[in-house]
């Protein structure tokens, strides 16, 4: 697979709100679907589809633990990417707030 295609697929996988939430939750610790579904307020079948997309894109890995499938972040750098997005969002919201208040944005 071409490098740019791999990177694009990974970013696309992160580009869905539910999948982004999954990555944020898994950045703290690995979890099974049965733990993730209630945290995301979604059905396990729907969540399994999102987990499959993330795994196929190289964002997550999984392992069996008895009857459970445990998911984890494959590369720690993914967490850093999400943190950068959080920082950008915080700055954008702050700038929007300042703009609405008529303050100068630096």
UniProtKB/TrEMBL annotation:
Signal sequence extent: none
Keywords, in A-Z order: DNA-binding, Transcription, Transcription regulation
Alphabetized NCBIfam families for the sequence: HTH_metalloreg
Highest taxon of source: Bacteria
GO MF entry, a single one: DNA-binding transcription factor activity
Gene3D superfamilies: Winged helix-like DNA-binding domain superfamily/Winged helix DNA-binding domain
Pfam families: HTH_5 (PF01022)
Protein name: Metalloregulator ArsR/SmtB family transcription factor
């Amino acid at each position: 697979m071409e490098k740019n295609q791999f990177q694009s697929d990974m970013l696309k996988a992160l580009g869905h709100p539910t999948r982004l939430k999954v990555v944020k939750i898994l950045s703290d610790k690995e979890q099974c679907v049965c733990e993730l579904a209630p945290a995301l307020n979604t059905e396990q079948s729907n969540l399994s589809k999102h987990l499959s997309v993330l795994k196929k894109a190289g964002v997550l890995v999984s392992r069996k633990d008895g009857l459970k499938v445990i998911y984890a972040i494959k590369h720690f750098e993914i967490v850093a990417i999400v943190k950068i997005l959080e920082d950008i969002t915080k700055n954008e919201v702050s700038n929007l707030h300042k703009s609405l208040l008529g303050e100068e944005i630096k």
